[in-house]
Design a protein that fits this description.
Shape: globular
Strand order of the largest sheet: 2-1-3
Largest sheet: 3 strands, antiparallel
Bound molecules: zinc ion
Helix content: 40-55%
Number of domains: 1
Structural class: alpha+beta
Strand content: 15-25%
Order of helices and strands: EEHHE
Length: about 60
C-alpha cells in the first residue's frame, strides 16, 4: 500500500490518498490538484514532485 499526502507538496492541505498502484495515486493526485488547487495543466515536474512524495505504508490491519 502506498500513500500520498498533498500537504507534503502544498503546505496546509489535509487531502491524502492511498492505493496499491503508484499510477493510480498520481492520477488521483493530479485530479485533486485540478479541482482543489486550480492547476489547469499537470506538468511533468508536478508528476515527479508527487511521485517523489509517495510513501509506502503498512496496510491497516
Ligand atoms: Zn491539496
Amino acid at each position: 500500500m502506498k500513500e500520498f499526502h498533498c500537504g507534503s507538496l502544498v503546505p496546509g492541505c489535509d487531502w491524502h490518498t492511498r492505493h496499491e498502484e503508484e499510477a493510480e495515486i498520481i492520477r488521483r493526485a493530479a485530479e485533486h490538484m485540478r479541482q482543489t488547487h486550480g492547476e489547469t495543466v499537470i506538468r511533468e515536474t508536478m508528476v515527479e514532485a508527487i511521485r517523489s512524495r509517495i510513501e509506502k505504508v503498512r496496510s491497516a490491519a
